[in-house]
Every structure is written in C-alpha cells, then in structure tokens.
Amino acid sequence: MKYPRLGVNIDHVATLRQQRGEFYPEVSRAADICLASGADQITIHLREDRRHIQDRDVPDTHNECRKFKRPLNFEMGCSDEMVQIACNQKPEWVCLVPEKRAERTTEGGLDVVDPNNYLRVKNACETIKKKSPNTKISLFVEANPEVLKRCLTLNADAVEIHTGEYAKDFLNKKDLSSHLKMYREGRTIIKAQGWGYHAGHGLTLESLETLLSERQFEEYNIGHWIIGEALFFGLSDVVKKMLTLMNKYPLEA
Ligand code: PXP
User: What's the pTM value of the predicted model, to 2 decimals?
Assistant: First the structure.
C-alpha cells in the first residue's frame, strides 16, 4: 500500500533563530527530530534575502537527510545564484518557486505562461539537470490547466500545487468545490505524462484531511502549522500526529 509523503518545511525554525541572530534553535536539529519521527523529507527555502534559512543550513540539513536516507527538498527562486548553489549541493529535489522580495511568504505559483518567466524556469531546469543529473525538480504552480500544460514542456519531474487559496477558504469555511475540481483536473493533466503531483502551502491538519480524502496528491510540504503546533505539543508529536492521519488515506483507496 502506498501512502502520501510528508515533507516538513522547517524554515520557521530559522525564522525564530534569526530573530535574535543566535545559533539556536538549530535548523538541523529540527530536521533530525522530524526525520526520526517519520517525516519523509525535509524542505527548506533559501531565500535571496536570507531572511530565515542561511547558507550553512543547506549542507547541515542535507547531512541530516542523508543520515536518514531521506530526500532534501531545496526550495529556491530561479536566480543564477540559487541555481549555482543547487548545482553544488545536489539535493535530491529542487522545488522552483517565484520569489518576490517584499512578500511574507511565497505568493502564487510560477507563471510559466509568461514567456520571460518560462525562459527563466526553463534555463534553471536545464542547468540543474546538466550539472546535477540526479536532482529531481518540482515546479510550484497554481492548478491552472494552461500553466500545467506549459510545465509539461519543461525538463522537470513534478509539480507542487499551491494550496494557499484552498487553505484560506477552508479556514473561512467557504465552499471548496471549485478548488477540489481544479486539483482533480490538474492531476489528469500531470499524470498523462507520469509526473509527480505534490501540494503545499497554508495547510493545517484539518485542511489536509479533506485533501487526503480526495487521494489526488502523493506528497505534501507543510511548515507553518507544524512549527506553530510544535510550540504547544513538541515537534515530534506533531509530525507523528500528521503522519498518523496521512496513513489513514492510502493513495489507492
Ligand atoms: N511549499 C512551498 C513551495 C512553499 O513555498 C511553502 C512555504 O514556504 C510551503 C510548501 C509550506 O507552506 P506552509 O509553511 O504554509 O505550510
């Protein structure tokens, strides 16, 4: 039986650390606890402005992942600097995201319908595949059919669907049917080419369960809710709780 995978995004551990500029709480320690508690991968986003994850966190976290034989999912914008770092570090996965300096978190997905953006993403994919052939690439996008079809023309392996709007509507108790319909249609497009279908952004235990029951996505990358709950219940217990829920929803019902 196959179950959906949980990637824990630990950027917010670094956010807390950078607030004081101290060396604690350590990001690699958080990775260790998440992986020891069963998380399937660790996600970190090295932003251009280094607001949370720092350069040294990338090899440190990758070493933790290697210790547990689990993938590092390295989230990054498509700048030359980030592409270079990915090519040197050779993570198991790269997730390409749009990055705007002023945003609080990643707003919206990659707009690969725009020709300039398309070219930037294309170049990033080509360079990474050439210099780190074992690195798989996911593209963080909205579940828009036109966008998804454009993605399939790129040298990548998966899409990660931006669930931010769905998650907000869930919290505001709004109708979710249009999101769920788009996710189902998106899966049909993506699976026609055998790519991975991942999801993430803004998810909580409750909003995750509705998606799990739809059995569309093979992987979820979740950070803010997990780290917030960890303040009250501890990181290990929160990761285990999420995995227990995920294991109730095998991918083939
Ligand atoms: N996936 C991607 C591509 C993201 O940019 C983020 C936010 O950094 C997440 C997943 C996790 O989102 P959240 O922290 O809201 O769970």
Answer: 0.97
